[in-house]
Design a protein that fits this description.
By secondary structure, the protein is an all-alpha fold. It contains one helix and no strands.
Length: 25
């Protein structure tokens, strides 16, 4: 369960950080 939650959080962060970094930089 912990691994699944971590993987989901990592995927969400990667998807959100992608566009954000592209906008900032």
């Amino acid at each position: 369960m912990l691994r699944a939650e971590f993987s989901i959080r990592a995927a969400a962060v990667s998807l959100l950080s992608g566009p954000m970094f592209s906008y900032f930089f």
